[in-house]
Amino acid sequence: MKIPSLPMLLSFNGGYIDTLGFLSLSGLFTAHVTGNFVTLGATAALGLGGALSKLLALPVFCIVVFVSRLICLKLQGVGRSPIRPMLVAKLVLLTAVAIYALYHGPFHGEENTMTLIVALTLVSAMAIQNGLHRAHLPKAPPSTLMTGTTTQIMLDLADLLADPKAEEVAAAKARIKKMAAAVITFAIGCGAGAAGFIFAPAAAFSLPAILAAIALFASTAGAEA
């Protein structure tokens, strides 16, 4: 059985974790952290729970991206690729969440110290994924935020329709194919995350760790700079 490419695994996990986290942890976006500004406003207006995790998500995300970038630069300075070490760090975080969820889950939306730790651990894992993807897999479409990707697909389709120049058609079609695959994979991940929450709300947190382990052996061909 062929292992999916690393960008595809990251896209699926991005959609899965964001959806599962949103449903399990008081509406927290673990990957699309700026979305928490909206949910924080809704929390304040409607008196919902989870305000602290939403408030802390962005600074924690920023700190983890910053620190992981420094580590990556250090590894590159000694001639090592940072991709595998960062994937291992992400795997450790997701495994810790999976173990805790199996023993103490499912989570029911109430915010306490442990659910806050789980939430911020997931935010940290996705911060590593975002930073790694942007800095070291720049040729792959984003794996956690599909707005820009969907916009580019529509722009390329419009350009092809308006002025289908022969020398640009092949590149545009290849770009559309790659980006559409990322959007579809992310959407499938979202659906799987929702299904996991419905049918196995505690065990569902194990799948991201399993996929993160598989990602250690996945191909990065065509994604690296």
Description:
With 225 residues, the protein is mostly helical. The protein has one domain: Growth Hormone, Chain: A (Up-down Bundle). 73% of the residues lie in helices and 0% in strands. It is built from 8 helices and no strands. The chain has helices at residues 6-24, 35-46, 51-77, 83-104, 113-136, 147-162, 166-199, 206-215. Helix 1 (6-24) runs antiparallel to helix 5 (113-136), helix 2 (35-46) runs antiparallel to helix 3 and helix 4 (83-104) packs antiparallel against helix 8 (206-215). The longest helix has 34 residues, at 166-199. The two termini are 27 Å apart. The model has no long low-confidence stretch (mean pLDDT 90).
Mean pLDDT, all residues: 90
Main β sheet profile: none
When the domains are counted, the total is 1
Annotation field: number of helices:
8
User: What proportion of the residues form beta strands (DSSP E)?
Assistant: under 5%
Describe the secondary-structure layout:
Elements: H1 6-24, H2 35-46, H3 51-77, H4 83-104, H5 113-136, H6 147-162, H7 166-199, H8 206-215
Helix pairs in contact: 1-5, 1-7, 1-8, 2-3, 3-5, 4-5, 4-8, 6-7
Describe, in short, the structure shown.
The protein has 225 residues and is mainly α.
Which features would summarize this protein structure in a list?
225 residues, mainly alpha, Growth Hormone, Chain: A
